[in-house]
Amino acid sequence: MAKQYLFLILSLSYLFSPELTAATAASQAGASKKAINFIQSSCKTTTYPALCVHSLSVYANDIQTSPKRLAETALAVTLNRAQSTKLFVSRLTRMKGLKKREVEAVKDCVEEINDTVDRLTKSVQELKLCGSARDQDQFAYHMSNAQTWTSAALTDENTCSDGFSGRVMDGRIKNSVRARIMNVGHETSNALSLINAFAKTY
């Protein structure tokens, strides 16, 4: 019962962190209106615009009105979220009392989220190289790599979530894992949209 309560608290604190909300509000208050407007306008092109604005407004002072910094920040936020989820799911493998199918699904998910982190890391590297590209061909090469790695990461996240499909998997483990994976997936989707938008600016 105590473990069930712990999982509930962890899940809720992850989604509704007061520190994150307060930091976002404080940042928005100190950021320029032009930067906030740029982020809001850019996020309209993403699949999850509300999440996009919430995640990136806190970095408005750094982003300003740069599509490059917007894409880089979105990707960095996504990578951070994926790393946090990786740690959370990895800890579940040591939890006692799991069903056999739950254990298998969690282990498979750990592999998928490891791949997600690896691919997002490579995407971050490729996006940085876009900034130092000497010509359009070099920019296009690194941009294509960044888009490919980010898209592949999104596939990994979907595969992890699919591993918990079916009513037989219903329960606290499924709910906890899928909530986190879903959030990473939404962040990744948004990051990919902003990367694609940045690609059009060169």
From TrEMBL:
It is found in: Secreted, Extracellular space, Apoplast. It comes from Arabidopsis suecica (Swedish thale-cress). GO terms for cellular component: apoplast. Belongs to the PMEI family. Its main location: secreted. Residues 1-22 form the signal peptide. InterPro entries: Pectinesterase_inhib_dom (IPR006501), PME_Inhibitor (IPR051955). Residues 34-194 form the Pectinesterase inhibitor domain. This is Pectinesterase inhibitor domain. Keywords: Apoplast, Signal. One of its GO terms (molecular function) is pectinesterase inhibitor activity. Pfam families: PMEI.
